[in-house]
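Checklist before submission:
- one chain only
- standard amino acids only
- sequence pasted in full

Submission:
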Amino acid sequence: MSPKRSHPSEASSMSYHKRQKSLNILFEQIVQAADNVLNDIPKIQKTVEAMFPQNANDLLDTLACWNYSCDRAKDPGGNWTSRGRAILDMRLQMIVYNEQYESFSQLQKLKLSCLPAPSDFAQKWGQCQSNLDARLLCLRPPDARGLPLCTLHDIFRRYLAAQMPLPQASESAIKAMEAAAQLCASMGRSFSTKDYDSNAVPQLRDLPENARTLTFDNCICGILDKFKRGYALNPTTDLHHGTVDGALLTEGILITLCEMKEETSDAYMQAARSYDLAVKVLRDRGAQAFLEQGAPMFLEQGAPMFLLCVIGPWLLVAGGFHDGKNVIVEPLGDV
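Returned file contents:
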């Protein structure tokens, strides 16, 4: 008897509850850290008034801001303005008294910079991208933009420059035309959950995206290497994780991510968030396997990756780049 497979909705539900548990734990840690600061404030206030009577007003103003910030953080639905975020960086001149607030500040900043998992981000990006501290520079909305990718890494300039007709008699042109014809004939159909691939991880076998990925692989056979299906992205520096529909690796380094979705889904925004997680996986100092295979050098170059977004019958090629601070994603051509 074959083992029972989890239904996609069950897997999604378990993933949601796991993420929610992580958020709840973080909130509990923030509340505890805030209480520690609030308990310390009266003691610090007395010390300040006794030792620094000349500068007491400025120091007491900082403590008042700390008090406001901690009270605000204990409200799970509180809306943080830019002024509120700036208070998280306020410190006293007496370094010894900053320790508790420093711990609280780091936890609260982690909560404020937290984006949803890729699938949720694709649905709620309008809310998420309003957070200037955490937004991805992916042209959604239009003012969320970085420098053009072609100026950031030569691979993108070369890709854009190479978008010209191939020599008709060349072997690569023949293979490309065959792949294009097969993609046009295949990718527009409605995919059934019964068309699963036995090599896929169990929780993905019943997903239409897996059947779509399998068909895509068959169409591009001979043009690109086969994608690793259901590739997990689990950075330790993010509260969330993700699983991309396909990934291409060279010597253990991710070079291409692929998201396969039906027309009603936003594969581009999901791919952008997946790229964000991929960068964090590379930056994760615990990922020793990556470190041994050139991840630091790849990160120094901006971790350039191609992002293939298959949206029903449409194919969009985008690029991803990390400038050391921001994630920059943009389309590299028309669908």
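Reviewer check: The chain has twelve helices and six strands.
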